[in-house]
Automatic annotation (TrEMBL):
Top-level taxonomic group: Bacteria
Organism for this UniProt entry: Maribacter orientalis
Protein name (Swiss-Prot/TrEMBL): Two component transcriptional regulator, LytTR family
Any one GO molecular-function label of the UniProt entry: DNA binding
Domain HTH LytTR-type span(s) in chain numbering: 145-212
Modification 4-aspartylphosphate occurs at: D57
Domain Response regulatory: 7-122
Length: 244
């Protein structure tokens, strides 16, 4: 993923800051698809233009905050988000984390900080793209998955999977007897596994819902493994349990 092919949408209601960002990003070789002051406009723009990166001010002045805008966009788009913020309090930071941003840039920013942050995000995007390519070698059928083990593809029944844990661009697939390390992201596994049996409960965990032993307020247990429940996943988990 070459730098000149990376497109960025700027969502910032301070037009002086937005214009400065646009000039600096263009000088660094990125394509700026637009400069927008409102979240509602950003939602439409992303749907129509599909930029790679969303450079988003957290504290927008319109009806939607930057975090609310990001949540709406992430429902339908796998887009990398970098937040711009002058507010670094814990409550705002924790709310922003629920949208799984790639990075934060604190205002006032300088060109070097901007350049390095976006370069790191682009590298993450490269790694995720490569992991997705590698994941094409993982075969998921109706009741089983074939995983590479000791140089060959081995069958693993889906009912034997306890949970899957993320490890950067890899997944660790846990069964009662063995664990497999897969060269793909947790998001790829989430898309491929049947939603009737598997549910994401945290940014780092997918569980086989039939293996759930204990459900507590902020965590669950499968066997002796304590797994945290992310706030943004709790409602989905509860709804899935009600339909089992």
């Amino acid at each position: 993923m070459e730098k000149e092919k990376i497109s960025i949408l700027i969502v910032e209601d301070d037009m002086i800051i937005a214009a400065n960002l646009s000039i600096q990003l263009t000088s660094l070789g990125y394509e700026v698809t637009g400069i927008l002051p409102r979240g509602e406009e950003a939602i439409v723009h992303v749907r129509e233009n599909r930029p790679h990166i969303l450079l988003m001010d957290i504290n927008l002045k319109g009806e939607l905050s930057g975090i609310e805008t990001a949540k709406a966009i992430k429902k339908d788009n796998n887009i990398s988000i970098i937040y711009l913020t002058a507010n670094s309090d814990d409550a705002t930071f924790n709310k922003a984390k629920e949208t799984h941003p790639k990075a934060f840039i604190t205002k006032p920013f300088n060109k070097l900080n901007l350049q390095r942050t976006i370069a790191l995000v682009v590298e993450q995007m490269k790694d995720e793209k490569e992991s997705s390519k590698n994941a094409q070698h993982i075969e998921v059928l109706e009741d089983r998955i074939f995983v590479r083990h000791n140089g060959r593809m081995e069958k693993l029944l889906l009912q034997d999977i306890l949970y899957i844990e993320a490890d950067r661009n890899y997944c660790i697939l846990i069964t009662p007897k063995i664990k497999h390390i897969l060269t793909c992201t947790l998001k790829v596994m989430e898309e491929r596994l049947p939603k009737s049996s598997f549910v994401r409960v945290h940014r780092s965990f997918i569980i086989n819902i039939s293996k759930l032993d204990v459900l507590a307020d902020g965590h669950l247990e499968i066997g002796r493994k304590v797994i945290p429940i992310g706030k943004s996943y709790k409602e989905l988990l509860l709804n899935r349990i009600r339909t089992v």
